[in-house]
Amino acid sequence: MIRLSLLVACLLAALAAPAQTVLDPALVERVRTLAETAARAAAPPNTRVAVEIGALDARLRLAPCQQVQPYLPPGMAVWGRSRIGLRCTDGMARWNVTLPIRVSVFGRAVVANGPLPAGVNLSQEHLALADIDIAAEPGAVFTDPALLIGRTLGRPLQAAEAVRAPALKSRQWFAAGETVQVLAVGPGFSVASEAQALTPGFEGQEVRVRFESGRVASGRAVAERRVELSL
Prior knowledge:
Layout: H1 2-16, H2 25-42, E1 48-53, E2 65-71, E3 80-91, E4 96-112, E5 127-133, E6 172-174, E7 179-186, E8 189-197, E9 201-202, E10 206-210, E11 216-223, E12 226-230
Parallel strand pairs: 7-12
Antiparallel strand pairs: 1-4, 2-3, 3-4, 4-5, 6-9, 7-8, 8-10, 10-11, 11-12
């Protein structure tokens, strides 16, 4: 009975206390530092990271807490619109919520020099360099226009829009029936041999090959008439 009374008293005290919806400035800075550190670890060199801290949902009724620990939720991206976890480790009631953030990573990247339609074969005149928010959209960007010359757009781009990997059509490195060089890679070794491609080899995609012995294996098309197998 005493324990029950104590529990009820604690709950009433928690309900009577003002809800904790405004973050302490020191906690905000800890959240910012955590997000910036995580973003910089994944950012390319010569880029600048900026973090915008959002607000807790005003509908939340959080009991006062003496110690709030910010953390990165497992699997959560640290670029663009994301969230930082906040958990109470010292209070009447333990709670765990997430706080919205936005992480920008500013750097120099290749952009469209003007509106470009899908299917265009990229040339130097189609491309320019500009300072952009690399984290604004998903997909890797390019810093060297030469790497894009001859590539084909799979979707249209607006003027000054970054040329990202998902916007490009996959290159076909070889056709079914062609002889390809196969590099088998294992722990501490690699073996090169030749095989016949049984399926077309599109950039980065799985392909099946048959060796002279008749053995069939699956690997990844990595370059012109080249396949990589992981053992």
